[in-house]
Design brief:
heterodimer, A: alpha+beta, CBS-domain, four-stranded antiparallel β-sheet, three-stranded antiparallel β-sheet, 9 strands, B: alpha/beta, Arginase, Chain A, eight-stranded parallel β-sheet, 10 helices
Chain lengths: ~210, ~375
């Protein structure tokens, strides 16, 4: 999954001379937390609702006035994403820098924005929950051919796999969370159990025999 | 006035001898009625035509489904959810689905023109079918078709789904609608199909707080289930005051069902049906349309729907099932069928986690009622 598949196009932006008060009102009205700051066509900074709240807080050393301009408060060293970046790369970057969004820039032009909420939506899509399906959680040997064996057992029964998530456990074991198109999840789980896969979900399901 | 709708052509909705959604389940019911000497009097529906389905399905989906059902090849049929284990391609299935949809639609029309107050449609309940997607054994969404027929005449309709699986297709089609309330009680979608039906799915826009879901714990028993019916469904209907109630009466919440893990007995179903009749009379303008639905333990499903039929007409069938019927179906299905209409008491070993399950469900009911309280003033 690439950033271009999940980004918001034509993000709402402000100019450097916009007042803090106006930027705040805009965020409230649009229900957003991040505003890229454009100087002409060029991305010159970014301002978040947190920046505004901290900058104008009565607890600050020298609080900014509501009429101060965005350019006095914004972050100027803006990290950006490219539309062809894989989503996991951008997620890593946001976690590393502890930031909540990345403006998306292509050929020097701001073309979109992705936020942490978009990445959560992307995760949801990866799990396949939007498709009518049943859920399996499986532990299996982390070795070549195991996944193929599992997929073959499902394909022989004409069962479509809507999503596969997999991650490594210790001791050469792999965990697999699948969403598959079947009403008969219980009997499928028993069949896979018989075939030597450890079924963690549905819970308390033993083999058919 | 009470009417039962059925047509022998419903049998054309047959997805194969190995498929769980079998027409034999209804045949078992009809056969036991005959054996008990009950003369059934059915209203025979017409089939709906493909073009009449465009209010609930996209035309490319209808065309594709009709084509493969007529033996033609359609490229990319998988995107419509067809040709899978759950929804295999079988000749004539679209016709069967239209014949059954015609029955549910006839039920709606009977309520609309006042020719019946209570209608039992002996088939249908295809609650998983979506605008452009066959799912969970369902092709055409007969329930949505019937509901839309009534809302088009300005009625407010409540839909109550007691199938063990979430009524996702119906909910989705009316998610924004202020005229339709959907209430689905089902086993929690943690692993069973279709995976949704969570508490937070409350409807959108004008339909907010009109879509209610109770994802019950696996191994929920009858008392806890009926508590949910009283505290959620009854309250919801009392507030919404619909012009009619549509019920999807799947029988797969029975403890012996192989596809799910709720633990209702036939006695629990009897109490549940009683409640449904009472609610429709007192809170839904005394208009009720019941369809069938899931139910994959054939012996339990046949007994539950026979109980439903008996209660629908206020009949009193003997608890001992006819020997000839038992012998015929035991040999045909190669299964053991209990010799009584009702389950023994107790019907199963005590569930170890019972107290915890009851508590979790109660908490769920509370959270749902809290979530809608502000909108239900």
């Amino acid at each position: 999954m690439l950033i271009q598949e999940i980004l918001h196009k034509n993000p709402i932006c402000v100019a450097p001379e916009t007042t803090l008060c106006d930027a705040y009102a805009l965020m409230q009205k649009e229900g957003i937390r991040h505003l890229p700051v454009l100087q002409g066509e060029k991305l010159s900074g970014i301002i978040t609702d947190r920046d505004l709240r901290l900058a104008t807080s009565r607890l600050a050393d020298r609080p900014f006035e509501p009429g101060a301009s965005v350019s006095e408060v914004m972050t100027t060293d803006v990290r950006t994403a490219h539309p062809k970046d894989p989503v996991e790369r951008s997620t890593q970057l946001m976690r590393e820098l502890k930031i909540g969004c990345l403006p998306v820039v292509e050929d020097g032009q701001l073309i979109g924005i992705v936020t942490s909420a978009d990445l959560l939506d992307a995760l949801l899509r990866l799990t396949g929950v939007h498709h009518p399906s049943g859920r399996l959680d499986i532990r299996m040997k982390d070795s070549p051919g195991e996944l193929a064996r599992l997929a073959l057992l499902l394909s022989e029964r004409h069962i479509n796999i809507h999503s596969i998530l997999t991650y490594e456990e210790n001791n050469q074991q792999a965990r697999l969370v699948l969403r598959i198109g079947t009403m008969e999840i219980v009997s499928i789980a028993a069949m896979l159990c018989d075939a030597g896969f450890e079924i963690l979900w549905p819970p308390q399901r033993s083999c058919a025999e | 006035m009470r009417r039962v709708i059925y047509h022998p052509e419903y049998k054309q909705y047959n997805l194969g001898t190995e498929h769980p959604f079998s027409p034999l389940r209804v045949e078992m019911v009809l056969d036991v009625l005959k054996e008990l000497g009950h003369e059934a009097d059915f209203s025979l529906p017409e089939e709906v035509q493909p073009k009449d389905l465009q209010s609930i399905h996209d035309s490319d989906y209808i065309e594709a489904l009709e084509a493969v059902s007529a033996g033609k090849t359609v490229a990319d049929i998988g995107k419509y959810g067809l040709g899978t284990a759950d929804n295999p391609i079988v000749s004539g299935m679209a016709y069967g689905a239209r014949r059954i949809a015609g029955g549910t639609l006839l039920g709606a029309r009977m309520l609309l023109d006042g020719s019946a107050q209570k209608v039992l449609q002996l088939g249908g309940g295809f609650h998983h079918a979506q605008r452009s997607l066959a799912a969970g054994f369902c092709l055409y969404n007969d329930l949505a078709l019937a509901i839309r027929e009534m809302t088009a005449k300005g009625w407010h309709v409540a839909y109550f789904d007691i199938d063990v699986h979430h009524g996702d297709g119906v909910q989705k089609m009316f998610y924004n609608s202020e005229n339709v309330m959907t209430i689905s009680l089902h086993e929690s979608g943690e692993y069973i199909f279709p995976g949704g039906g969570w508490l937070h799915e409350l409807g959108r826009g004008m339909g907010r707080s009109l879509k209610l879901n109770l994802p019950l714990e696996p191994f929920t028993e009858g008392d806890s289930y009926l508590e949910a019916v009283e505290k959620v469904a009854e309250e919801a209907l009392r507030w919404f005051k619909p012009d009619a109630l549509v019920v999807q009466a799947g029988a797969d919440a029975h403890f012996s069902d192989p596809l799910a893990d709720l633990m209702l007995t036939t006695q629990d179903f009897e109490r549940l049906f009683q409640k449904i009749f009472k609610m429709s009379e007192a809170l839904c303008n005394n208009r009720l349309l019941i369809t069938l639905g899931g139910g994959y333990s054939f012996q339990a499903t046949a007994r539950i729907w026979t109980i439903l039929y008996q209660m629908f007409f206020g009949l009193k069938f003997p608890n001992e099932l006819p020997d000839a019927w038992l012998a015929r179906w035991e040999s045909k299905l190669k299964i053991k069928i209990p010799s009584r209409l009702h389950d023994p008491n107790p019907a199963f070993e005590p569930i170890p986690r019972k107290a915890e399950i009851v508590r979790t469900n109660r908490d769920l009911i509370q959270r749902l009622m809290d979530a809608v309280a502000a909108d239900w003033l």
